[in-house]
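User: I've been trying to design a sequence by hand for this structure and keep getting stuck. Would you show me what you'd pick, starting by listing the structure so we're on the same page?

Assistant: Good idea, let's start from the same input. This is the structure you sent:
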């Protein structure tokens, strides 16, 4: 069995990886299918206007300036299948701010009268969507620059090391604040680019180190003796070995970027104010301590997201290097037998 197959089998047998993947998968599904859980319009409507499927997505502009009662009346003569909550993340409710839980608003409303359930559901889309795009972009940039510096060596290698050291001196929140000060209209794209600008250095450092280590291995020396170019050696032999540490770093990075997005939204420097964000809900809870649910619910979702990411990343790291994982466990807990994540370790 190949090394990749062995790693995948270890991850599949890991209870930590299963639990973390289940938590993250649930949040991803909530974000992707947010309109099914909370939307101002029906999921399906059959009436005078014909058959409408997901009108809240297809005709979103139609409902921007309509109240919930007006939307309901427009479908009074139609057969309609409504989502779990008949409210979007932007519209204010007639119930007013800080309304208690009810059938219409299961978790109540926030300080602007918007449905809290909808804000949290769409906030999952904002947090995970931005983090996944930013982590993917930073991983691609880091692999490209780290690989080029390792292949070329010399001045390119020295320039990358100096550049990585320079980027590491900038706190992520400071970079986002500078971007927000420069642009006129806040946008999700600028936030993604700012986060990727900070995170690529970590990935480049990993790939650069793996390139230096792999260049001295026997398989790389043998390929070099057979006339293979540095680029071919990197693509065929070094990069596959570097993808493991990059994957672990990227999974850890999802949790870091989610926390960063929440922090900058808490400071009102995040996504556009109309976009749902857990950080904005936390800021409302900080301003209104009596509305405890505005603090508790976003914190719970953050714990689930960060905990799930760390469980998956930790299981991946242990699966790729079981000897180092066993040494860490022995140093921390002592030798109490095989780990529950390694059911076949003693066989």
């Amino acid at each position: 069995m190949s090394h990749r197959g062995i790693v995948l089998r270890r991850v599949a047998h890991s209870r930590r990886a299963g639990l973390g993947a289940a938590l993250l998968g649930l949040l991803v599904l909530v974000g992707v299918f947010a309109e099914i859980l909370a939307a101002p319009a029906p999921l399906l409507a059959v009436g005078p206007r014909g058959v409408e499927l997901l009108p809240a997505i297809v005709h979103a502009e139609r409902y921007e300036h309509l109240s919930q009662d007006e939307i309901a009346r427009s479908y009074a003569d139609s057969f309609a299948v409504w989502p779990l909550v008949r409210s979007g993340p932007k519209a204010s409710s007639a119930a007013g701010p800080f309304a208690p839980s009810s059938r219409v608003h299961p978790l109540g409303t926030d300080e602007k009268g918007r449905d809290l359930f909808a804000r949290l559901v769409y906030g999952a889309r904002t947090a995970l969507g931005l983090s996944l795009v930013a982590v993917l972009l930073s991983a691609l940039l880091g692999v490209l620059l780290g690989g080029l510096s390792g292949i070329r060596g010399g001045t390119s290698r020295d320039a990358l090391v100096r550049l990585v050291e320079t980027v590491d001196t900038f706190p992520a929140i400071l970079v986002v604040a500078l971007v927000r000060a420069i642009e006129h209209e806040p946008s999700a794209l600028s936030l993604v680019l700012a986060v990727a600008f900070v995170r690529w250095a970590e990935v480049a450092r990993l790939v650069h180190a793996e390139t230096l280590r792999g260049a001295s291995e026997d398989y790389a020396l043998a390929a070099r003796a057979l006339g293979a170019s540095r680029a071919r050696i990197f693509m065929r032999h070094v990069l596959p070995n570097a993808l493991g540490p990059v994957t672990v770093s990227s999974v850890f990075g999802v949790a870091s970027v989610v926390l960063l997005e929440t922090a900058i939204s808490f400071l009102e420097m995040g996504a556009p104010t109309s976009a749902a964000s857990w950080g904005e809900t936390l800021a409302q809870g900080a301003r209104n301590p009596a509305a405890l649910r505005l603090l508790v619910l976003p914190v719970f979702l953050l714990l689930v997201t960060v905990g799930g990411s760390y469980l998956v990343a930790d299981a991946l790291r242990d699966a790729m290097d079981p000897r180092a994982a066993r040494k860490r466990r022995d140093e921390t807990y002592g030798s109490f037998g095989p780990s529950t994540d390694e059911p076949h370790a003693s066989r």
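That's my pick for every position. To get oriented when you compare it with your attempt: The longest strand covers residues 44-47. Strands lie at 44-47, 50-53, 79-81.
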